Protein 1
Amino acid sequence: MNQTNIFKLIQAIEQMNNDNIMRFTKAFPYPIGISPILVLYELRTKGPQKQVELAETVGYTKGAMTNIATKLVNLGLAERMYNENDRRTIQLKMTAAGEQALTEAQKIGKDVFTQLFEVLSEEEINQYLKIQEKLVKSIHDRKKSNVK
């Protein structure tokens, strides 16, 4: 494997990711980044959850998850639900405003990527898709082998 080409590929990926994040952030009207959006997505997908569960799912520390949850609550995008029988059990739940923010984030994300990929031909898109699928499979295979 040519190390120079790998280094160039890493640089290109980082440049593309940074540009996409900046374009997304400029278009997204809420003062939050990608991490809180990922949390909102998990809440939409799985419903209310404990912050500890969310931290594990999205790969954040408990402290980072507390900060994300506080930001989402302060913006009205999520709310904390307390268990009547055990006030120590707190779940985070997405609000209607959070649902709207997530829908908008997904639309903006789709627009950003559509603009990015519109320079590629159909054949190039198919090649790129095969490469991405191969990389994703490799990631999943590594996770499986590390679990055993």
Protein 2
Amino acid sequence: MKSNIINRRNFLAQSGMAAAAALFSPSAFATLAKPRFKMGLQLYTIREAMEKDVAGTLKRIASLDYQDVETYGFDPAGIGYYGRRAKDFHQLLKDNGLTTASGHYDLFKYLHSPDDVLLTYVDQCIEGAQQLDQKYITWPWLAPEDRNIDQFKLLASRLNIIGARVKKAGLGFAYHNHDFEFVDHGGINGYQIIMKETDPDLVKLQMDMYWVVRAAKKQPVEFFRQQPGRFVMWHIKDMDRTTEDYTELGRGVIDYTKILPDVNLAGMQYYFLEQGGNFRTGNAMDSITENADFCKRKLRKFL
């Protein structure tokens, strides 16, 4: 009898170990819920740190489990970023296990330039993006004097021209929104013009969730339903409950657990956490730490 009890215990123990081994085997890990998308950061959030110490800042970013970054700023003459040649900056990213899927380029400065001048700059952007292995070149801004209906229509035509050039080079092109696209101009706004008058095959959309919620007064899904698959990149940031300024993720009013389930409808491929200012401690590095932690705890299960 005692021998049977011992054998039974051994069997149960061995069975439990086998089950555990199966659960935690490499193949089992592959089947566990694993994020589909890299956790990204728009580097503009930590612009002061990037100006002071590029290498140290990128190392810190990687230590927080960010895997992808979106660049801002570009030196077209030297094909460089942050005071480094593109290939050297790319190597610095690789040394820290980082990639860059997109960059914000100063295309808005060429809105009124002749086509040849515009396309010369676009070609320089393409060269830089290719050296960084970026997938998208993104138009990030529009000067205040250009925020009227006539200029939005001009913008749409320029976006199509740029998109065709970028696509021919094997890259993607996207437009990033702020608040001014949602200002009403006699029953129409700039975002409507961009969505209607640009070719979705040439011009994708990088949606800034904060500005859509604050300025458009709509939920992002309302736009996704209009043009499914076009919103290939997202900027994820929160809105303060009182001031409506930026705030750290989880401290504001934007409930991303209700937005993120629509990533497939939107066509999202990349996302970037961003916070342009209003840092709780006054230190942007503290804020990107808090944002990364919240994302990993609460949001990555959707991503």
Protein 3
Amino acid sequence: MKVIKKINLPTQIIIALVLGIILGSILHGNKDVINYIQPFGDVFINLIKMLVVPIVFCSLALSISNVGDTKTIGRYGGKTLLYFVIMTSFAIFMGLVFGNLFKPGVGLNPDLLPKGDISKYESTAKAAEQSTYGNHLIDTVVNIIPTNVFEAFASGELLPVIFFSVFFGLALAAIGQKAKPVKDFLGGTLEAVFWMIGKVLLLAPIAVFAFITTTIITFGLSALIPLFKLCLTVVIAMLFFIFIVLGIVSRVCGVKITQIMKLLKNDLMLAFSTASSEAVLPTVMKKMERFGVPRDIASFVLPTGYSFNLDGAAMYQSIAALFVAQLYGVHLSVGEQILLMITLMLTSKGMAGVPGASIVVLLTTLGSVGLNPQGLALIIGVDRILEMLRTCVNVLGNSVATIFIAKTEGVYDKKQGEEYLKSI
């Protein structure tokens, strides 16, 4: 037992990752076993999701109440959304560049590729298409305002929760001294929930083992072989985006992207293994705060980014769309690719909270530019593995965003960040 206790959490996660790959390879194709392994991962994700909303609400309402200036909050929001639009657009553009450069779909025979089942994504896409106002983006904007805040809390919809939290925080600031008991309660609740997060994270290795094992059992490493070029294109594009694009933004802020990666190494490993950004949201918020980003910015930018700044997903969607076009020998002109870029940009914002969002976004987008949506059935086998990669990019992209917004506001504490880095 003493030996086990000496093994730190990151090492435990790596061991779980390796063991999961080995066991998954041994049990590949034996899908009956999944029903006994998957629940361990699902329990962990449910525990994290249970605590995400209380953390977002308490931290954001408390931070906004301390800022208390509607002009300042409006400036945060305006800068954040502008930054998200620019970065997401650039991610889609970079995906198209790499898709055209490497041409991952050229030379492949669609009839020889393993075909997955996209029926569940098609039903989700059809449901999502039934928008109230005929436009997903308008729907998203309208639905930011919850008709029932308790329903929004219960369903875990972050945008309505963020809206109510900001409004509630401004109300606390407006009533002055009368708000002190409420602020004390929120502060105490936040500390208690972070304690709970610490205990839940001890289960991370078990969850990692469960998710990796079930992924390999379902799809197998052999799925990577016929689609190796697609996977390689996505990996190279994402590495370029991390080290060049996010690297430049980080440098502008006075930090290195490698420092941010060192800071978030445990979180990135967990995000990769679970393919879930929510699994690391609470810990990333806390780390960004310790890294020198004020709580009011970190607690606003990070949760908002989960709906509006999914750089990894955006890049993957543009590469996958070109892959399908190339697979069927369809040549997309520059104008058609610009239309594809704009469509992806708008559609992705309207479906950020939809399960299997990347595939659903592609299903609704491909038809609009004359491509066969059924081509997506050919990449289902590697989608889970690529989802793990794009989740890491999403987490890094939103973390860099918090530092950038704090820097532009002149409130980023670089010295505190350097001291925190030395301590880990």
Protein 4
Amino acid sequence: MEEEEKRMTIRRELIDELLKECSDPKQLLAEGGFLKQLTGALIERCLEAEMEEHLGYPKHGKRTEECTNVRNGRSRKTLKGSQGVVSIDMPRDRDASFEPVLIPKHETRLEGFDEKILALYARGMTTRDIQAQIQELYGVDISATFVSNVTEAVLDEVRQWQNRPLEVLYPIVYVDCLVVKVRENQRIINRALYLALGVNMQGQKELLGMWLGHNEGAKFWLSVFTELHNRGLKDMFVACVDGLTGLPEAIETLYPQTQVQLCMVHMVRNSLKYVSYKHRKEVAADLKQIYAAATEMEAEFQLELFAEKWDPKYASISKLWRSHWSHVIPLFTYPEDIRKVIYTTNAIESVNMSLRKVTRNHRMFPSEEAVYKVVYLAMFNIAKKWTMPIYHWVPALNCFALLFGERFPQ
């Protein structure tokens, strides 16, 4: 309601007066049409008003004796905007001290034009796609260098965002990755982009950071969580991960009180790699009996039954579960309300699914910086939809308050 009250309204009489000379409605939006002319005229009138303020007297008016500066004609300037290319006459003064606010010196783009380019870039469009789209929509020719320069300005935002302070406590932190292709030393290689998604005390999702990994391992993950710790993240109740090498060890080093929970969906997915297609449905159903058990003892019993049945064919599956058992069993210490939000990394998987739609259009990224630019802008769009707490958050939070009373903020 408040925004509607602030919105500028134009009297119908004024609009009718302006449209008297416009006999064909198609002339409104045509090249060189009424809307573009009106845009140019309004800009020129505003610039003239700025010049009057700068000089201290109106055009053709009498200047004071103290004022030595005068108007000095006009210069032609072409601007790129959402109406296309608009040509205007820029007023000049004799001592070149006039600094217009509406259209600053050396500026050739109307406000909002860069934002349109960034919006297209955030949706995964390549530089060439953006060039073609801008030409088709606005009739404006832009170069690949122009698009690159506009998006380059985002890198400063990315650095500030990546180094911003974090909250002291995130009850749940999810960690996952997606693979992108990056040009490196004249070769195109697959690189893993790791994402950490936190859930704050209000149940709202927040991307804590992103990192392109060279060598996944404990040393790499230790540097990631050291960074998060230095930025203010001092505690988390549960870290939900998908078995990335060295990740549980790094978390337990910096956050010894945090319980590391492996994602059951990833565990099942990794288990089914060893299974022939005709057995997959049955094996998946038997694995569910393990992670859906009510207690740890029952889960161990179900694992033994699974091993008896499937070890003759797929012995590697029970071996996989036993080797990761210490990071499977934390699940059974929690009531149903918390299990629903930690047994899977779906919260971050849905983020990755949205990001893959964007990165898929970029068959190859020319640099690491290009990856960060695209993902950051895409995340900005995705985060706009995070207006509600995650599912089952209120009962889960109540359980956290009981289980972690000494660490739970008052």
